[in-house]
Each structure stands twice: as structure tokens, then as C-alpha cells.
From TrEMBL:
It comes from the Bacteria. The keyword Iron-sulfur does not apply. Keywords: Coiled coil, Signal. The keyword Metal-binding does not apply. This is TolC family protein. Residues 312-395 form a coiled coil. Belongs to the outer membrane factor (OMF) (TC 1.B.17) family. Residues 1-23 form the signal peptide. The lineage of its organism: Bacteria, Pseudomonadati, Bacteroidota, Flavobacteriia, Flavobacteriales. InterPro entries: MdtP/NodT-like (IPR010131), OMP_efflux (IPR003423).
């Protein structure tokens, strides 16, 4: 009884496990890629590294401790100097540390936008490969169905030849197309196998991992009205943050052009006088110190400010150029969507018409009043349109995914703990 319970439990677990695998969708694969892709991880690590810059630059410089032991004693009224200890802490000009933190923070924000763009690029590529695999799976089914139908045609022609009402050439023609279909099926299998390897590489999984595909992914291509500006693209935001960082750098250089102030203390160890009695003999000396840097060489600060200003203009111009490029790519992607919609509707109509023509030709052929070559020609045209339907669906969905990428829209996966 216990064994039965164990077997039932294990069976339930396995069914649940394999059922969950079968239930994997594109969104599931996108989440896996967002969490496991090495390029995404690397981009996020760069962002984390940039985040560690601000705590460094906003900290004060390390204090300086100087120790001196006199070889030949310096005599003072209270006694010979035996050693000196100097401790000095430099303080940048007011607001300098905050300016450094602003520069580092803006650069870290730029790195985060770079991470988002890398992630979105990977998610777009995952979507593209997924749709390619879906199209190949559909085409494999159409090819397999075509192979079975051609075999039935061959059997039909053989039966007519046996009955004395058919031609042997019909059998040979059916066999020729059947061989082509077998080869086409093998090529599609190889192509899908290579696609699975590429898809799993994007997810950082083993090459042979099974990719579960839906039986139907598109119920209908609707006429969507696109109002998707590219202003939300992370690449534009990255350049915006870099321009802001360059402007903050200009302010930082201005702050660094002011003097640094140092505060410290000097402690001198004094020995007792041995030649005469002096009041407070051997008393150590303590002296406060004030240090001010003198930034008199102004040329480097002027050059640094100009450099930061030119970099800010460079980033702004690059952002303007990128915005134009993205807008042009958006128009191209919208055209690809419309084109795929039109072709998909055309191919579906062609499939429907070809099926009707083929049924009429087959009926006539059975009654010995139709040319078998025409039956095979229409059959191959039907297969061609079926394959094109699958490809048009993939093109349509890929173009939609590209629009989401260009607009900066993506599933907000939190790929870090």
C-alpha cells in the first residue's frame, strides 16, 4: 500500500513537472533570458560596479601622518627635539565632494540604461528566434502533411495504372515530388535543430534543451494604430544621462579650481636639558597647522572645463542623431507590420482558393477528365502558400516585437535578487 502511495505521489509530481514544462510560453522564456543570459548579467554587473564609484569619490582623502626622528638633535630652549609627528587632513573646497558624487551618480544611471538596452536587445532576439522556430514548426507540419498527401496521390495513380486507366508517368511525377518533399522535410528539421541551439544559447541553457512551441500563436492580424514614440528608448536616456554627467563634470572642475584646505596638528617630542635647569624643561610641543593648496596653474582647469562642455555637446548631438535613426527604424518596423499583415491575408486567401481548385481537380482526375500534372502543380502551390503563411506570421510578430524594442517597451523583469 505504501509503495502504491509513493508511486502515485511520484507520478503526480512528474505529471505536474512535465505539465509545467509544456505550459512554458514566450513570456516564460523571456524571463529566463533576462535572468540567465551572460550579456545581460555582464551589463548589470557593470552597472553595479558604477554604483560603487559614488561612495569612493564623495569620501575625504586619507589623512597624512608624518613621523620624523632627528639624527642630530635640534636644540631648543626647553631641550633637544627627539621626534616629530605631523597629522594632516585635507578638505576639498565646499561642494566639491557633492559635485563628484553627482558626476558618478549620473554615470551610474547611464550604465543602468545601458543595461536596460542590452536586456531589451536580448529579449528582442529571443522573441525573433522563438517566432522563427514557430514558423519552422508550422512548416514542418505542412511538409509532413504534403508528404502524406503525395503518397496518397502515388497510391491513387498506381491503382489507376493497375486498372488500365492511368499513365505510368503520373506515378513517376508523384514520386518525384514526394522525394522533394522528403528532402524539404529533412532540411527544415536541420534548420529547426540549429535554431533550437541558438535559442537555448540566448537563454544560457544546454543546446539540446526542448523548446515548447504553441500550436497556434496568432489568431488574427488586426489593424493596430501605432502611437509609439521612441523617446522611451534606453539608449536615448543613456546619452541624456551622459550629457548631464558631462555638465556636472564642468561644475566639478570649477570646484576643483578652488584651494583645498588642510587642518592638522604637529607634535614634537622634546628631551630634558642636561646642562642646566630650565622651567618646563623637556615639555613636548603641540602646534595646530593650517594648509592651503594654491591652484595657480589655471590652464589645466580651463582646458578641463572646455573638455567637459564639448563632451556634453557631443552627447547631445549623438542623442539627436540616434533619435532620428530610431524614428526612421520605427517607421520601417511599422511598414514591416503592415506588409506582413497584407501578405498574410493574401496567402490565407490563396490557400483557401488553392484548396478549392485542388478539390475540383482531384474530383475530375478520379473521373479521368483531368490532367494529373495540373493536380500536382496546384498541390505544390498550395504547399508554397501554406509555408508563406507561417513565415508571414513570424514576420508580423517579429516586427511587433521590434516596435516594442524601439519604443523602449519591455516586460519589467526583475532579474536580480
Amino acid at each position: 500500500m505504501k509503495n502504491i502511495v509513493k508511486i502515485s505521489f511520484l507520478t503526480g509530481v512528474l505529471l505536474f513537472f512535465f505539465g509545467s514544462l509544456q505550459a512554458q510560453t514566450l513570456e516564460d522564456y523571456l524571463q529566463i533570458a533576462a535572468e540567465n543570459n551572460p550579456d545581460v548579467k555582464a551589463a548589470y554587473a557593470e552597472f553595479e560596479a558604477a554604483m560603487q564609484e559614488a561612495p569612493q569619490v564623495k569620501s575625504l582623502p586619507d589623512p597624512t601622518l608624518t613621523m620624523t626622528a632627528f639624527g642630530s638633535m635640534v636644540e631648543t630652549r626647553l631641550g633637544p627635539q627627539e621626534a616629530r609627528f605631523s597629522l594632516m587632513q585635507m578638505f576639498p573646497w565646499f561642494g566639491t565632494l557633492k559635485a563628484r558624487e553627482n558626476v558618478a551618480g549620473l554615470m551610474a544611471e547611464a550604465k543602468f540604461q545601458a543595461f536596460l538596452n542590452t536586456r531589451n536587445e536580448i529579449l528582442l532576439e529571443v522573441s525573433r528566434q522563438y517566432f522563427i522556430l514557430y514558423a519552422l514548426e508550422q512548416q514542418l507540419q505542412f511538409q509532413q502533411e504534403n508528404l502524406e498527401i503525395l503518397q496518397s496521390y502515388k497510391d491513387l495513380t498506381l491503382s489507376r495504372v493497375s486498372a488500365g486507366s492511368g499513365a505510368l508517368t503520373d506515378v513517376l511525377q508523384a514520386d518525384l515530388l514526394r522525394n522533394e518533399s522528403v528532402t524539404g522535410l529533412d532540411v527544415l528539421r536541420l534548420k529547426k535543430q540549429a535554431g533550437v541551439v541558438k535559442f537555448n544559447a540566448l537563454l544560457n541553457r544546454t543546446a539540446t534543451e526542448i523548446v515548447h512551441l504553441p500550436k497556434e500563436i496568432l489568431t488574427g492580424a488586426e489593424n493596430v494604430i501605432f502611437d509609439t514614440p521612441v523617446s522611451g528608448n534606453p539608449m536615448l536616456t543613456e546619452l541624456d544621462r551622459m550629457a548631464a554627467s558631462a555638465k556636472a563634470q564642468e561644475i566639478l572642475v570649477q570646484k576643483e579650481g578652488f584651494p583645498d584646505i588642510g587642518l592638522g596638528i604637529d607634535y614634537v617630542v622634546v628631551g630634558e636639558r642636561m646642562d642646566m635647569a630650565v622651567e618646563d624643561s623637556g615639555r613636548d610641543a603641540i602646534m595646530p597647522m593650517l594648509s592651503i593648496s594654491l591652484p595657480v596653474f589655471r590652464g589645466k582647469y580651463k582646458a578641463a572645463r572646455k573638455q567637459a562642455a564639448f563632451m556634453a555637446k557631443s552627447y547631445e548631438h549623438r542623442k539627436e542623431g540616434l533619435a532620428n535613426q530610431l524614428a526612421a527604424e520605427m517607421e520601417e518596423a511599422i511598414f514591416e507590420v503592415r506588409e506582413a499583415q497584407a501578405m498574410l491575408e493574401l496567402y490565407k486567401r490563396q490557400v483557401e482558393s488553392s484548396e478549392q481548385v485542388l478539390n475540383l481537380l482531384l474530383s475530375s482526375y478520379r473521373n479521368a477528365s483531368s490532367n494529373f500534372e495540373e493536380v500536382l502543380r496546384v498541390r505544390q502551390e498550395l504547399l508554397k502558400y501554406q509555408l508563406e503563411v507561417a513565415q508571414a506570421e513570424a514576420n508580423y510578430l517579429t516586427a511587433l516585437a521590434r516596435i516594442d524594442y524601439l519604443s523602449g517597451k519591455s516586460i519589467d523583469y526583475d532579474n536580480k535578487d
